[in-house]
Specification:
globular
Length: 403
C-alpha cells in the first residue's frame, strides 16, 4: 500500500464515519424527544435517499473535475450538516443533517473510487487497491457510532443529555476536516478526454447499452439483496427463536467483522484469482448458506452462518469495483460508479419494504430460501462477464504519480 492510497483510505474513513455516527445519533435524539417510530424511520431513510438521487450527478461531476472538487464539496456538506445539528438539535435540522451527511459520504466515495481505480496499472493492482479501499467503510461503520455513543453517554454528565448529543455532533463535524487535510497533497490524475464519437452520449441510458455493465448491475443487485435480507430478517428470525437483543446484535456484528476481515486478506491473494471466479464462488456459497440458514437451531449455529456469509459477501465488493473499471469507458468511470451506488441505495430503501410484505405472507424461512434461489440463479452472470466482457489484456490506466 502506497502512502497516497493510505491517505485516501483515511480520508474516506473520516467522511464516512461522520455519516455513520450521525445515522446512529440522530434517531436516538429523535426518540428521546418523543418522536414516533415512523418519524425515526423517515429520518433514517434520508441518509440513503440522498444518495439515490445524488449518485449519478456526483459521478458525472467526478468525471469532469477529478478528485479534489468533489471531495471539497463533500467535506463542506458533512461539516455543515453535523455542525447544524450541534447548533440546533431539533428534528427538522436533523433531517437536513441526514441529507447533507448522507450525500457527502456518497459523493466522496464515488470520487475516491474513481481516482483509486484510475491509479492502478493493471487488473491485479485494481483488485488490490479496491480491496484496501473496501476496508475503510468497515472501520468507519464501527468508529463513527462508537465515538458518538461515548460522547452521548458521558460528555453531558448524564446519559443521553442534550450536551452529550451536541458534543457528539461537534466531533462528527470535525472528522471530515481531516479528509481534506489528508488528501490535499494527493496529486490529481490527468483528465480523460472523451472520444469524439462519445460526444453524443449525454444520458446514463447509454451505459446500459453495454452488455457487461447490465450484467454487472444485475449481479450487484442480487448480492446487495443478500446484505439487505440478512440485516432485515436475522432480527426477526432471532426473535422467533427467543434470542435476546444482545445475542441478535452479536450475530449481526459477527457478520460485519467477518466481512471486514476477508477484505484484509484479499490484497494478499489478488494476483492469484480472477474477479469473476471470486464473485461466482461467492454467489454459489451465499445461495447454499441462505438455504441452510433457517435450519440453524440456535445462536451459535446462526452466528457460524453469519460469519461464513460475511466472509463470502465481504469478498465481492473489490472484485465488482475492479470489473466496473475494466468494462466501462475510462471517461465514464465516475458515472458508472454513481449508477451502481444509486442502484444499491435504491435497493436498500425499497427491499426492506418488500421483504416485510413477503415475510408476513410466506414466512421468514421462505424469504431466506427465495433469496438463496435468486442468488444461485444469478451465479451464471459473473461467468458470462468473465467469458464475454472482461478484457483479456491488462487495461492501460495511468499510475498514480510517485511522490
Amino acid at each position: 500500500m502506497t502512502a497516497a492510497l493510505l491517505r485516501l483510505i483515511l480520508a474516506q474513513i473520516s467522511i464516512h464515519a461522520c455519516m455513520t455516527g450521525m445515522r446512529m445519533a440522530t434517531p436516538l435524539l429523535a426518540l428521546r424527544e418523543g418522536f414516533s417510530a415512523a418519524s425515526v424511520g423517515f429520518l433514517l431513510a434520508l441518509f440513503a435517499l440522498t444518495q439515490v438521487f445524488l449518485s449519478l450527478p456526483a459521478g458525472r461531476y467526478a468525471d469532469r473535475h477529478g478528485l479534489r472538487r468533489p471531495l471539497a464539496l463533500s467535506v463542506t456538506a458533512a461539516v455543515l450538516g453535523a455542525g447544524a445539528a450541534a447548533a440546533f438539535p431539533i428534528y427538522p435540522v436533523l433531517c437536513g443533517a441526514a441529507l447533507l451527511t448522507g450525500g457527502a459520504a456518497g459523493t466522496a466515495i464515488i470520487a475516491l473510487q474513481r481516482h483509486v481505480g484510475r491509479s492502478a496499472h493493471d487488473k491485479t493492482q485494481l483488485r488490490k487497491v479496491f480491496s484496501w479501499l473496501a476496508i475503510g467503510p468497515a472501520i468507519s461503520n464501527f468508529l463513527g457510532p462508537f465515538c458518538a455513543g461515548l460522547l452521548i453517554d458521558y460528555a453531558g454528565g448524564e446519559a443521553a443529555s442534550t450536551t452529550g448529543f451536541r458534543a457528539a455532533f461537534v466531533l462528527l463535524a470535525l472528522l471530515p476536516l481531516s479528509a481534506w487535510f489528508l488528501s490535499r497533497t494527493v496529486q490529481e490524475l490527468p483528465p480523460v478526454e472523451a472520444p469524439a464519437a462519445a460526444a453524443k452520449q449525454a444520458t446514463a441510458w447509454d451505459l446500459f447499452q453495454n452488455q457487461g455493465f447490465r450484467r454487472l448491475l444485475l449481479m450487484n443487485w442480487a448480492l446487495s439483496s443478500c446484505w439487505d435480507v440478512h440485516t432485515f430478517v436475522v432480527p426477526i428470525l432471532g426473535h422467533e427463536r427467543g434470542l435476546s437483543a444482545s445475542v441478535i446484535g452479536s450475530i449481526l456484528g459477527a457478520f460485519a467483522i467477518a466481512a471486514a476481515a476477508i477484505r484484509l486478506l484479499m490484497p494478499l491473494v489478488a494476483d492469484r484469482i480472477s474477479e469473476w471466479v471470486v464473485v461466482f464462488t461467492a454467489m454459489v456459497l451465499a445461495s447454499l448458506l441462505f438455504v441452510l440458514y433457517p435450519f440453524m437451531p440456535g445462536a451459535w449455529s446462526m452466528g457460524a452462518c453469519s460469519i461464513l456469509l460475511g466472509l463470502v459477501l465481504g469478498s465481492v465488493q473489490p472484485m465488482v469495483m475492479s470489473m466496473i473499471h475494466q468494462i466501462t469507458p475510462p471517461h465514464r468511470h465516475g458515472e458508472a460508479l454513481g449508477l451502481r451506488m444509486m442502484a444499491i441505495n435504491g435497493s436498500s430503501v425499497v427491499m426492506p419494504i418488500i421483504f416485510g410484505s413477503l415475510g408476513a405472507v410466506v414466512g421468514v424461512s421462505a424469504l431466506f430460501w427465495a433469496v438463496g434461489v435468486l442468488v444461485g440463479t444469478g451465479a451464471r452472470l459473473p461467468w458470462l462477464i468473465g467469458r464475454d466482457d472482461l478484457p483479456e489484456a491488462e487495461p492501460e490506466t495511468p499510475a498514480l504519480p510517485p511522490r
